[in-house]
Amino acid sequence: LTYPTHLLTAQAALQAALQVKCVRDIRFFEPNIGTAARVGFVPDHYVDISDVFERKLKALKTLKAQPKLVDMYTTCNKWRGIEVRRPYAEGFVRFAPQTPVLDFLTG
To answer: Does position 60 have pLDDT exceeding 60, yes or no?
Structure first.
């Protein structure tokens, strides 16, 4: 586990979201850039970020403690873009605490 605070934050967000009964669509972002395949991260939802990619890079460049993020996210966002035929994209995975079909059956 690279960043234990990320896990704790995700757990806290999930607990809060699940308390709100109307929240049905929770999505997770890339766990670790470059290792997604090894941890089983396969996106089921993509967001085209082509129009805001330069702004994202500008923001990443302000993180002086993590200078490699610019190259890593550039590569990752290009790859995700290739997957959906866009210049740049981000991939997400849906969190489903219950089988979605059961939601339809139980109303």
So the answer is: yes
